[in-house]
Specification:
This protein is an alpha/beta fold and 743 residues long. Helix content is 30%, strand content 14%. The longest helix is centred in the first third of the chain and has 21 residues. Pathway: Protein modification; protein glycosylation. Its cofactor is Mn(2+).
Length: 743
Amino acid sequence: MQAKKRYLLLFSAGACLVLLFCFGGIQVPLSRRGPNRRDDRSLAGFHPGARWRRLPGYLQPFSPWEQDRSDDLNEHISPRQKRDTLSGLYTGKRCRMESCFDFSLCERNGFKVYVYPQQKGEKLSESYQNILSSIEGSRFYTPDPAQACLFVLSLDTLDRDQLSPQYVHNLKAKIQSLPLWNGGKNHIIFNLYSGTWPDYTEDLGFDIGLAMLAKASISTENFRPNFDVSIPLFSKDHPRTGGDRGYLKHNTIPPYRKYMLVFKGKRYLTGIGSDTRNALYHVHNSEDVVLLTTCKHGKDWQKHKDARCDKDNAEYDKYDYREMLYNSTFCLVPRGRRLGSFRFLEALQAACVPVMLSNGWELPFSEIIDWNTAAVIGDERLLLQIPSTVRSIHQDKILSLRQQTQFLWEAYFNSVEKIVLTTLEIIQDRVLLHTSRSNLMWNSLPGGLFTLPQYSTHLRDFPFYYAKLGIKPHPKFTAIIHVVTPLVSQSQPVMKLLVSVAKSQYCAQVMVLWNCDKPLPAKHRWPATSVPVIVIEGESKVISSRFLPYDTIPTDAVLSLDEDTVLSTTEVDFSFTVWQSFPDRIVGYPARSHFWDSNKERWGYTSKWTNDYSMVLTGAAIYHKYYHYLYTTYLPASLKTMVDQMSNCEDILMNFLVSSVSKLPPIKVTQKKQYKETMMGQSSRASRWADPDHFAQRQTCMNKFANWFGTMPLVHSQMRLDPVLFKDQVSILRKKYRDIERL
């Protein structure tokens, strides 16, 4: 009897479960794993047991679980928000490079970027015009859309705040009508401001489709890893090129300043972004923690002011923002209406370590930059702990953080051009993954923009990482002698020079670059040496060919020589020994300098013999061969064409390039006034330095080059390196480079 009751009870329970299942009371999950934003497979639309569907536009989620979750969420949003969501504002929310980018467009011509021609009647903001100009002036630009891998709109998408005068209306229809839009595939959209009062959402007001987003103030929730690029918020006054240097002129030990932590900015009484700034007064002490806010902004601020406004405004007016910024160890960067803030870049430039208080903000260029080495990442919910946290940071760490702010500011943020180029380089690294940069290249000097992975992916092949790797450069050099006059005599200066250089214990080989109009001389005309002598005919006979990245250069170091240079073997040995300690700089003998002519308001060039110099001419200098590659691929064709047409200034341009990369001056070795052979005829092409027009051309070059770089990269120096005991009153037998003093 008892057994029958048990069976009946079990049967009844089973029947109830079956009925519940049939009427939807129990739902069985289709997958053991729910979607996770950081799971690339789920984000790409991958679900176990589901097959890919080839749709004309985009990959839609087709999991019943997703549909149910969306329905639950939609119960709490307005009908308009539902319409916007269904219309495809987040069409490409699951996009990754693998699913929404056509790599085949980049296989034919490499990574090239096309900018749409500007449409009639369409106005561009100054900031967006600077972005487009930076792209068009870069080595990535192509005017032919058939060669392009990436496309950039000529429609201004920077400001999508409907209350802004820069807001572009009917952008959705304008974009959809573009013949190359293709649903946004292989497009990138730049944006600084999105959303408007009161919620300031990240909605751009149009369907971006499958396009990548280079956006300021983007949240980690909406950021698509390995697809979007987070960029900094910058003002309309941010320079297009060049940019100012950081304000850290020298390191102070201990690295503390007048203030420990500062902030000065608006306070929002209500709405999004008001909580954090409204609470800052709790940690303000008017001594070393100075956090100032004001309610005095907007038209109706007096109608909405609270009891603290008058006191806050009075305190706010007592302090000068710049003085606070330059005299503080840490700078608070709280969120505003949007996640990003202008305070971020201001703090970086001032060498004031940013303390981030913006929960959910995807920091600028987070894909490549390790922000833990340059900023303190705080939590808005733990505001009261911020002062004690920054006080606990050791002074060694503060010094390291401060130095890194200066590197990052100058490498990636001090101009619109660098922000744009960094964005493009990040995307190029994704496309050409096998030649992408390492984390060390991005986060240490000179930065990712100057370490081109197309040259090499090995750190040891660059002149910047020997100390970090604990290695030394190749122990020998390759000499390149630039020849422009015919070979008529065995007593010509080039013959003497070739023999002297070949005798050096550090010489691996000598390359003779024949840029003369006459045919190449026979092999037996060249002197016999203990090292190989390779004669190469110059490409197009132009002067820039001396800086081509020749495959026949087996060494790290290149000794660049003019044919009429006078150097002894001892001088060559000593200069190479010095270069081994400074492989990222130009090391040599003939020095020149630059100055600012206030009367003419232009840069000047001088060859006067002084104790100050900023250039070492490449007629007798040693540098790393990587600079040949940079000269050829990084510099624009316009500058190299100008140099070739004048047959002048190539040495100045190389100095500009190297100083721009290293941020350091060249190094002059040993006092030597005469480094040119005086017997060269004045009619010779090699003696162009004696031509009166030659000097005037070099003045012009200085200003043309400075204009392209956007700043003056040359750095003055008063350091000259001589051998130990140089000209000391001791026995000549005690000196290693004794022959130098006899010259």
